[in-house]
Structure formats: structure tokens, C-alpha cells
């Protein structure tokens, strides 16, 4: 029997047609679903108007739709009517809540994509339509309906995009008018709808092209600690925002280039208002758990409103002191709190101690959690603690989980890469695992990985390479004893190691193996970078001139001219904010200048038992410590500028401060 192998061109043609049909079908379904949702909104608005007819007598009436309109125009027409009614109708607070729920179910359609499809279809049937639909931004007037055309021009709703923005904004504004009248259950419901939009917003706006848009910190002016406050200024040094005013910092101007950023800003405003209105003292345990789920979703998307996260953690600490939450061990709640602290970089030491102590004393194997979920949460927990005998069980659980999936040849490769990377950044180098890891990398070195995973593997191997180079030089009688693990203090560079009963390792051979693999993955980084540059679909990432590191670069450029490089990549593939060459008559000194922003630090919050005294400490997180350790092993000096110091200086003093710091490096 001969196996049939179809011709490549024939196969490609079939696959292409199948994908086109599937995509076209999905687009039609999404348009139909959106049309139904908008009709539901309209029907409910009409119902509300009829129920309160006396308050809505002056509203315009609209003619029946034109059946010849295409689906997109029907949707826009209904959105225009919806916008008008939302702006002008009168209803009570419960009806506005229901209206907000219905409007929140809408998933804004991409008008340009739909119009382009419409152009192609029209061109096939009638050449005349080519001129009519030549531009995707073409504004259509509705025939025989002057009222709708008037609304379109009066409210400047000239396309689908503006209609969606207006509908969302108006429904939110109406809701804000009645906000104090709603119950805590209503607030939770509103927050859930806001969380759904945040997921939608970040899904349609692929953030890979916005490298600096990782976390959006919204600062409060009511904090009683100075290190974490900031005064925002625009280009002209005019203060933006004031007391109790909500601002999204200008560091994230890329937001205003994203689709539906207007709705995003309105949603953030609504979220902030609700979270500031909530009375935690009156909150039941179930409501608190639902609120924690919302915070988890919000912080995971990168939206961090620091004051509200602190309020949540304060309340949790108070309940722990009252033993309200100790009676019910909710592991799922623990995991949500761990994630909130992990993503927000705000860590309550009181909460952390309680979670670590409780998890140590319960058997998670009896809980309804898969080991993968426990592992992923424990891995995040490792980045929040200083390893000691009380919490070392967290590392051991992760270690044996990884041993299990490596020996079973599991497909969860990313968990393996993440574990070894996290082990490195916390300074834990386990010799009982490294041989297995090297073998695993050899077997899977040809697999195409995401760029982030390739970088994690490379930086893991780089850390091992540097550690072994120093370790081999400093440990006596290396071949006479077997090393269990090495723990490095990145600040003091003190190396602590334990002995093991297992066979000893040839550390020189191990070092050569790691160095070889390191060079392989370094080459993969080069290849991925080259492919990214040559990919036409990849958008060019523009420089954000508002970033603090760019302002530092401009100051240095004024003094050192062409001897300054912005975002320099070293031979070891480490990205530096600024690389500076200080040239003197007899020597040339290389200096790295790193700006440590908010995401480089964890804010440790500790509340004293028995009083309301709260202590705030800003410490570098493990990623920052690890990068500083890597840089310290490179042949140049490094200067680190903390954001909380830099932001306290006016522009004139910043330059003076920077030159004083550099003076000690000359």
C-alpha cells in the first residue's frame, strides 16, 4: 500500500480557503451577536421610558430601520439611538444599574475591518459601490431619517467607534450620579463588569508592541509615606493633578494610542470611585472573597491602584487579629492574595506570615487543587519571602514537583524553565537538580520557544556560569566533598553552601557544559531578534520620551555628547538603560546607569498589633537584585538611581544630583 501525500500547493490552497471560511463565519457570528446585544439594550431602554413616561415625554421618536442597510450600519444606527436615549432619558438608580449591566455586555466591533470586508463584497457585485466605500472612515447618512442624522452630527458620533465610546461613557456617568445609593452587592456586580472590560481591552490591544506598558500605577496623594508618592508634571513643568485627583501617569502615554482607551479611562475612574466608597468594616467574608477575586483580575492585567490594595490588605490583617478568617482556611483566597501582592509589588508582612504558617500546617493534597496550581502559586510566593527554615518547605514542594515532571517527561516545559529561573533570582543554586536540567535542555534545545522563555533559560545559565566561576575559585578541596546547594546573598556576595551525601560533581566539567548551552541559547536570542526585525507585521516600537531614564539620557548627552548610548545591550545580552564612556587623558572608564522605577521594588507594609502604626519599607525585588548581581560581574561600573529619590528633585537639581553621583565614578 502506498501512502497518499497531497501536493503542497494543493494542500496550502485548501488550508487557506478553510481558514478564510472559518474567519468569515466567526466575523458574521460576532456581528450577529453584537446586533442582538444592542437590540436588547434598546428594548430595555424603551421599557424604562414607558414605565416612567411622565419624565420622558420630550424624547424624540425614531422611524423603523431601513431593511437595505447592511449589518454594520444597522448596528451604528441602533447605537446612535441608544446614545441619544442614554443622554436624555430619566430613570431611577436600579434601572441605571441594569442599563449599565446591559451596556457592559457589548464587545465593540472593529469598524475598519468590517468596512474593508464590505468593500470587497460590494466591488464584486457593483463597480459603482467602489467610490461609495472607497474610504473606511466614510461617514454614512441615514436615508429618510433626519433625527438620527441630527444626533450623529450634534454628538459628533460619526462612526462606530465614537458611538461605542459615547454609550459606555454616558452609562458610567449616569451610574456615578447614584453611586452612594447602591449596596455592597451592587458594587461587586459593577466591578465584575469592569473586570470583564479590562480583559477585553488587553485582549484586543496586544501589549507586545508596548514594552513599557507592563504596569499602570495610579498614585494616591493621601499616603503617609513619602517614598512612594509622586508629583506628575507635563512637558512645561506644570503640575498635573492635585489632591484626591485620579491620574494615569504620563509614563503610559501609549495607552492613548490603544483602541477604546477612552472607555478604559472611564472604567478606571468608576473602579476607583467604588473602591473608595466601600466600607470594609461592614463587609461579610463572602463579599471580601469576591472583592479579592476582582483585585486579582485587575492587578494581573497590570492595573494597580495602590491605596485600594493597601485598604484590602489592612482589612485582611484586622480580620486575622480578630480571628475572623482563621476559622475558615480558604486556600483559594490565599492564592488570590499571593497573586495580588506578587503583581502589585505591595507585600503585607503580616498577611505573608499568616499564609506561610497556615499552609505549612495543612496538607494541600487533600484540597481540591491540582499540584500544578499549587506549584505556580508557591513559585510566586518564593519571590516574596526570604528563604529560611520556616518557609523552606515552599522551595522543597516546587523542587519535587519539577523532579516529578522531568522524570515523567511531562509537557509542562514552561514550569521547568520558570522554576530554575526563579531559583536563580532568589540566589538558590541546587546541585542535585542541575544535571537533570542540563540533560533536559540538551534534549529540547531545538524546540521553538517564546522569546520570554528563551531569555529566562539564558539568564539562568548565565547565573550558573558566573556562580560556578566564583565558586570553583573560593571553595577548597572541591573534589573531596559533594555540594548540596549554594545560596548567594546578592548584596554581600557571601556564598553559603551545604554538603551532600550524593556523589560529588566535576565542577569544571559542569561549568563547560553550562557555558556551551549558554552560548546556544544566546545564539537563539540573536536569531529571534533577527526574525522579529524582518517580520513585516511587527510594528516598530517608538521611544517613550516621557520616561525618566530618557530624561537622564538627555542630561548625560548634554555633558558627554556621543559617549552616551540609550538602551545599550551588552555582549552578555543584558539590557542597560544607559551606557556611558568617561574618557580621560590616561584611561577610559565604562559606566552603566540604571533607573530603578516602581516595578523594581516591593513595598513592604507591616502593621503593629494593638495600634494603628504602620511601617513602610521600599526594598529591591529579586529580579532587580539578580540583575545588579549579573552586572556587578561585568567589566564596568554601575550607578543605580531609585525613582523615589529622582522624583523628589526639581529639574534643575536633577542635573546637579546626577553629575555629583558620576563625579565619584571618574
Automatic annotation (TrEMBL):
Keywords (A to Z) from UniProt: Membrane, Transmembrane, Transmembrane helix
Sequence intervals crossing the membrane: 416-438
Recorded coiled-coil stretches: none
SMART domains reported in the protein's UniProt record: RAP
Domain RAP, first and last residues per copy: 591-660
InterPro entries: RAP
Pfam families: RAP (PF08373)
Record's protein name: RAP protein, putative
